[in-house]
Design goal:
- By secondary structure, the chain is an alpha/beta fold.
- The protein has two domains: 226 residues, Rossmann fold (3-Layer(aba) Sandwich); 164 residues, Glycogen Phosphorylase B (Rossmann fold).
- The protein is built from 16 helices and 13 strands.
- The strands form two sheets. The chain has a seven-stranded parallel beta sheet with strand order 3-2-1-4-5-6-7.
- Helix 2 packs antiparallel against helix 6, helix 4 packs parallel to helix 6 and helix 8 crosses helix 10.
C-alpha cells in the first residue's frame, strides 16, 4: 500500500503530527511518503520526505474558470491580511501550485491530506486526482472558506465575511469533483463540527488522536532536572508553550494578565516560544526560553514543571498538551475543543469553564492548593491513545477500507 501525505510545512503542530504518523506507518511496513511545500533543515534527510519543486508560472496556469475571480479575490484577500487586525490566519483556496500533477505521477493508493493552506489549489486539485482521500483536520479551515477558527469569524465578521463566503463557494464547487473522502480529526469536538458542516456532512468520519513519541516524552526525575536547570525542588514552576506566545487564540494575553498573581504566590513561569510582543521578557520571575526544537530538551522542560498552563480559547488537539501528560505533568486548561476530550478534572489536570483572567487565576490557586498529581496516572491517562503503533493501525484500517 502506497500512501502520500500532503502538508504545507514540515514544522508546526500539523507538520510534526504528519511526520510522526508518516514514521509510524513506515515502522508498520507501509510505503509512506510525505510531500511538503517547505521542508526544514532538521527534516530534509528524513526517509520518505519530499519537498515540492514548483515550476508553474504564477497566474497564467490558474484554472481558467476561476482566473478573473482569482485576480479580484487576490486584491480583496490582501486588504484583509494587511488590515492590521489581530486575527490568526486567513487562507485562500486558490494558488499557483499544481500538486495534483505530482500526485498523478507518484500514483499513490491513498492521498492523505493534512494542513494544506497555501499549497493545494482546490479547483484543479480535486478535479485532477482520482484516488481515495483521507483528510486529517488540524484546525477548522477545511470547514470554512479562509478562516481557521470560529473565534476569528466571530471577532472580525464584518471584515472577513464577504471573502469568506466567496472562498467557501470555491471549496463547495471544488469538492463536488472529489471522490471518496474520509475525514479524521484528533478531537471529538472537531468531528462533531465537521459532521454538521456544509462541506463534509456527507463524508465518513473518525476520531483518531495524533501519535506522539512516547519514548522521548516519558517520566523523568523532577529532582535531577530541577538541579540541572537551576530550580530548587520546592520552587513552584508553571510552564507555558506556544509557537507564538502572543497568539490571542492561545491565550498568551490571559497569562500575561495573571503574572502579578504568579509573583504573589511565588510561582516561577517558564515560557517557550517566540514572544514578538516582549510581554514576558525582563521579569525576574519569568524565564523566557525562546523556541526549543530539541524534543529531548522539551521533554525535560515538561518534566521539571509542576503543571503546564494551556489557556487556549480554542484548539483542536494541541500536541504540547499530550507531550506534557506523557511526561507526567498535569495540564491546566479550559473545557473547550480538544482539551475537554483529554483532560479529566482532578485526574490529569484541571479544567475551567470560561476562558478569562479570573479562570486562569483560579486554576493556578486550586492547583497549588491540591495534593500533587500522580505522574504515573497522568501519563497512563493518554498513553494508549497516542502510542504510534496504535494510531498507525487505526489509519491503516481506514486505508484498507477505502481501497477495497
Amino acid at each position: 500500500m502506497k500512501v502520500l501525505h500532503i502538508n504545507t510545512y514540515s514544522g508546526g503542530g500539523a507538520g510534526i503530527a504528519c511526520l510522526r504518523l508518516h514514521q509510524a506507518l513506515l515502522d508498520s511496513g507501509i510505503s509512506s511518503n510525505a510531500l511538503f511545500k517547505y521542508v526544514g533543515e532538521e527534516t530534509r534527510l528524513t526517509e520518505g520526505v519530499i519537498e515540492f519543486q514548483h515550476k508553474e508560472p504564477f497566474v497564467r496556469k490558474v484554472n481558467r474558470v476561476f482566473k478573473t475571480r482569482f485576480d479580484r479575490l487576490t486584491r480583496e484577500h490582501q486588504k484583509i491580511v494587511t488590515s492590521g487586525q489581530n486575527f490568526e490566519i486567513f487562507s485562500t483556496p486558490l494558488n499557483e501550485y499544481r500538486v495534483e500533477k505530482f500526485v498523478r505521477d507518484f500514483e499513490p493508493d491513498i492521498i492523505h491530506l493534512h494542513w494544506i493552506s497555501d499549497f493545494i489549489n482546490f479547483p484543479s486539485f480535486f478535479k485532477g486526482v482520482d484516488r481515495p482521500i483521507v483528510w486529517t483536520f488540524h484546525d477548522m479551515n477545511p470547514l470554512f472558506g479562509g478562516a481557521h477558527y470560529e473565534g476569528d469569524m466571530e471577532r472580525f465578521k464584518l471584515l472577513l465575511e464577504e471573502v469568506e463566503e466567496k472562498y467557501r463557494e470555491i471549496k463547495r464547487y471544488s469538492l463536488s469533483f472529489a471522490g471518496r473522502i474520509h475525514v479524521v480529526t484528533p478531537s471529538k469536538w472537531l468531528v462533531e463540527k465537521s459532521q454538521h458542516s456544509e462541506l463534509f456532512a456527507g463524508c465518513n468520519h473518525s476520531h483518531i488522536p495524533n501519535c506522539i513519541d512516547v519514548e522521548t516524552f516519558n517520566l523523568k526525575s523532577k529532582r535531577e532536572l530541577r538541579q540541572k536547570y537551576g530550580f530548587l525542588e520546592s520552587t513552584k514552576v508553571l510552564l507555558f508553550v506556544s509557537q507564538s506566545v502572543d497568539n490571542f487564540r492561545k491565550g498568551g494575553d490571559l497569562l500575561a494578565q495573571t503574572v502579578p498573581t504568579l509573583v504573589e504566590k511565588g510561582v516561577k513561569l517558564l515560557v517557550v516560544g517566540d514572544d514578538h510582543s516582549g510581554e514576558f521578557e525582563g521579569n525576574p520571575d519569568i524565564r523566557f526560553l525562546g523556541r526549543i526544537k530539541d524534543q529531548s530538551k522539551m521533554a525535560e522542560i515538561y518534566a521539571l514543571s509542576d503543571a503546564y498552563l494551556l489557556p487556549s480559547r480554542e484548539d483542536n488537539f494541541p500536541n504540547v498538551m499530550v507531550e506534557s501528560l506523557l511526561c507526567g505533568t498535569p495540564v491546566l486548561s479550559f473545557a473547550r475543543g480538544g482539551m475537554k476530550d483529554v483532560i479529566v478534572d482532578g485526574v490529569n489536570g484541571l479544567l475551567a469553564l470560561k476562558p478569562n483572567k479570573a479562570s486562569v487565576k483560579k486554576l493556578i490557586s486550586d492547583f497549588f492548593a491540591m495534593r500533587p498529581f500522580d505522574p504515573v496516572i497522568v501519563r497512563n491517562s493518554i498513553l494508549a491513545q497516542v502510542e504510534p503503533q496504535n494510531v498507525a493501525n487505526k489509519y491503516i484500517q481506514i486505508y484498507k477500507e477505502l481501497i477495497k
